[in-house]
Amino acid sequence: MRIDKQKIKQLNDQALPEHRESFDHLSDVLGRKGFDSKAIVEKLKEFQVAVPSWALGTGGTRFGRFSGGGEPGTLEDKIADVGLLHQLSKSAGAISLHIPWDIPEDVQATKELAASHGLIFDAVNSNTFQDQPDQEHSYKFGSLCHADKEVRKQAVNHNLEVIKYGDALGSKSLTVWLADGSSFPGQLNFKKAFQRTLESLQEIYAGMPADWKLFVEYKPYEPNFYSTVIQDWGTSHMLADKLGDRAYSLVDLGHHLPNTNIEQIVATLMMVGKLGGFHFNDSKYGDDDVTVGALKPYQLFLIFNELVDGMEDPSSDNPYPAWMIDASHNLKDPLEDLLQSLEAIKLAYAQALLVDRTALEEARENNDPALAQEILQAAYRTDVRPLLAEARLQAEGALDPIGAYRRLNVRKELITQRGEKVISTGL
Ligand code: PSV
Ligand code: MN
Ligand code: MN
């Protein structure tokens, strides 16, 4: 399904006078502080976040799954759902696939369908954390780190196949996240596991097209509960460094132990040009994967403050990071959830663009933490929602994406088309 553009326009027209008033007011306030609202709106229009195919269905927990109905049952439906998100938000211009959950039957037709929704294919993701019905060897005791060379070979070949699919679709990067690790002390030889993983990744790296990047994602625990082979950013960076120039670390917000200073990790990785990708979500306890900004919007802002700093730093050769939402849970309508995540990401981005970096640097050099905090919080406490709305309006999206989604009964229409019972592939 696609939303009739005219209907979005009609809703926008109704809300326009109020929006104009708040946008003009904010532009005046920001203008007096030396910020150019127009330039910020342009940056917001450019900022696109990939939506992963596995977030479009209701997420389950190990205790149950409660589908809301109208879920996408095919890759085509998933593309259509991201298309809807993009129509409303104008910020979700890419989809990230997980193979083998999303194998395209007809690559050309899939590419054309995505393009017709204004979408490109972002990083492709391999899956060696589950066994597939037709596979020869099991990943129960690991994949790229496995003690048995044949298992490692199977996992490497799977990644090479994922690259092939991605290449055909126009993706330019592969994200590798491994569940490899151990659940009991003594189970795994840490050094051998690292070395085997490195060798396997080297084979995968060698199999990438010359213009591709490899993102190495880390995670401290789960599904293994004693050790994870790529447990943290240091391990991920060591691997990326040994692999070569086109290998990078990938930071997933949920993949840290409580209270980790993620903004410092971001700053450090960007300083050495090794932050390749970023997975957004939020959490209270672990890898909760709840809506971005639902719990810790200030932390998200502090992270964006470093991301913007890294992106604007002329001495850094860090590539433009690949942004992706990696959130999915079991209560909200997944499309509303993703619209909220997109909004939270862009709010934090816009606020970070309002940090007076020259003044902040001066405060730091003068050892003035109180002033540094004032500067950061002045940006954080600015209500930047009119800037986001203006960016959407100019791009012909919805002034109020969730409002439009509800008023246009999108979920009801999806349920009519797809039924109540379709279960989307994913976790
Ligand atoms: C693992 O927890 C993860 O964050 C990785 O990015 C996976 O690819 C994704 O979730 C989906 O399983
Ligand atoms: Mn992730
Ligand atoms: Mn995760």
Automatic annotation (TrEMBL):
Q: Which UniProt keywords apply?
A: Isomerase, Manganese, Metal-binding
Q: Which residues form the Xylose isomerase-like TIM barrel domain?
A: 103-289
Q: Which domain of life does the UniProt lineage start with?
A: Bacteria
Q: Name one Pfam family in it.
A: AP_endonuc_2
| SUPFAM superfamilies with a match to the protein in the record | Xylose isomerase-like (SSF51658)
GO MF annotation: an example? metal ion binding
What InterPro entries does UniProt report for this protein, alphabetically?
L-rhamnose_isomerase, Xyl_isomerase-like_sf, Xyl_isomerase-like_TIM-brl
Concerning PANTHER family, the annotation shows:
L-RHAMNOSE ISOMERASE
Name of the molecule in the record: Sugar isomerase
Name the species this protein comes from: Echinicola soli
Q: What is the lineage of its organism?
A: Bacteria, Pseudomonadati, Bacteroidota, Cytophagia, Cytophagales
